[in-house]
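Narrative of accomplishments. A recurring question from our advisory board has been how the design workflow behaves on a single, concrete structure rather than in aggregate. To address it, we present the structure tokens for one chain from the evaluation set, followed by the sequence designed for it. No filtering or post-editing was applied between the two.
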């Protein structure tokens, strides 16, 4: 295994060549190889090998936002080198191959490439990638997999059972499949889609032909530029927020919190279906926003907010002196170093290194969204006669009787607007 690990660091330059290659379709009967209870995820990123052939093995990298898998195969030639054969670097019989392709469910179909014509640590001549066969990569869980290869050029085909060389990523893999649903499976709605959906609480889109709307009863609709199509429905909870970095990387968050019941859920859409990636019985999720696929925030009805770094969801506490956030209603920002969270009359700001108390008022801000005149606006519930953070261009008004409450639109904006 140590010999295998020593090869790994030399392979990433080859990824730049083979990752962009065309995917060769492989004719396979999905029913014969696919598992319905596991879905490939980036928690599988690791070094894999067959203990019976120590010194050989594979690195596997899953790119969920692209829906692809990149694989390197560290092995040897089919025959031993001639006696006395030498090489300037490494053993004369060492061979490495690369493979890349799309995945769906528990299976990936990859094209195998052999590189030739390059020199050590030299840009020129540029190595050439030649497709030499195919691989079907199959996983049924986070611990083991099966690599089925077909290399017609050398007349070899077969299957290699593989396991991890280390257990560091198993927890992440299982967390990405953590669910009250079967692990990693597509979210399945209950019953037929209703004729009318309501209410809706949030919307996000990557373009005018790719829009997601979420709301009550576990509802997610998708708009393709012509029609709105139900994607999920019939849940005993609602979705409060939706955000994505691309059409193949979208998050919907929600749950329920009240009457002694708390449940929070995060679903992820990979371009094929929605899958549950996080759940809790401690709170409801109230909003979601990110600056990239590796920098995502989800606010909760009580307790911490959660941050996703591309590998796992981790809790973050917002504290400043004697003030600490206990849940939040909304999150939004302009980048990784400019993030706002609001709730209960408090605005928090993250500058890329720490959270700071940015503003406070006697009323509750409900959510954050971009505003054309500034950074932030929200809807707040204001008691009669109270105003929050007036700017030079804002004036107080009369809201009615003292005991009366009402909802008003509010902007924290630049004074020059």
């Amino acid at each position: 295994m140590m010999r295998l690990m020593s090869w790994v660091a030399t392979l990433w330059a080859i990824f730049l060549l083979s990752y962009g290659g065309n995917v060769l379709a492989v004719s396979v009967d999905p029913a014969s190889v696919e598992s319905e209870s596991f879905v490939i995820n980036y928690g599988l990123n690791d070094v894999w090998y067959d203990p019976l052939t120590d010194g050989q093995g594979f690195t596997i990298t899953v790119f969920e936002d692209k829906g692809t898998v990149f694989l390197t195969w560290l092995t040897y030639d089919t025959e031993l080198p001639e006696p006395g054969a030498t090489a300037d670097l490494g053993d004369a019989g060492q061979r490495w191959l690369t493979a890349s392709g799309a995945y769906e469910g528990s299976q990936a179909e990859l094209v195998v490439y052999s590189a030739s014509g390059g020199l050590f640590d030299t840009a020129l001549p540029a190595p050439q990638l030649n497709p030499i066969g195919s691989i079907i990569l199959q996983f049924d869980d986070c611990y083991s997999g099966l690599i089925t290869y077909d290399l017609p050029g050398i007349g070899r085909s077969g299957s290699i059972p593989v396991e991890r060389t280390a257990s560091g990523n198993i927890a992440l893999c299982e967390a990405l499949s953590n669910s009250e649903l079967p692990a990693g499976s597509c979210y399945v709605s209950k019953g037929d889609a209703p004729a009318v959906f309501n209410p809706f609480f949030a919307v996000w889109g990557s373009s005018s032909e790719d829009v997601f709307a979420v709301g009550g009863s576990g509802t997610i609709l998708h708009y393709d530029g012509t029609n709105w199509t139900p994607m999920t429905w019939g849940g005993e909870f609602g979705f409060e927020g939706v955000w994505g970095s691309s059409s193949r990387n979208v998050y919907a968050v929600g749950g329920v919190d009240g009457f002694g019941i708390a449940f929070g859920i995060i679903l992820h859409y990979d371009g094929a279906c929605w899958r549950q990636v996080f759940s809790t019985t401690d709170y409801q999720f109230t909003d979601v926003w990110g600056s990239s696929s590796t920098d995502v925030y989800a606010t909760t009805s009580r307790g911490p907010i959660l941050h996703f770094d591309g590998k796992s969801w981790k809790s973050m506490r917002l504290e400043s002196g004697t003030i600490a956030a206990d849940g939040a209603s909304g999150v939004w920002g302009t980048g990784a170093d400019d993030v706002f969270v609001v709730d209960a009359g408090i605005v928090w700001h993250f500058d890329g290194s720490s959270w700071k108390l940015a503003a406070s008022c006697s009323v509750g801000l409900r959510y954050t969204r971009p505003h054309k005149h500034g950074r932030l606006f929200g809807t707040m519930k204001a008691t009669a006669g109270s105003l929050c953070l007036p700017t030079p261009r804002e004036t107080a008004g009369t809201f009615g009787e003292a005991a009366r409450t009402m909802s008003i639109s509010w902007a924290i904006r630049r004074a020059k607007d």
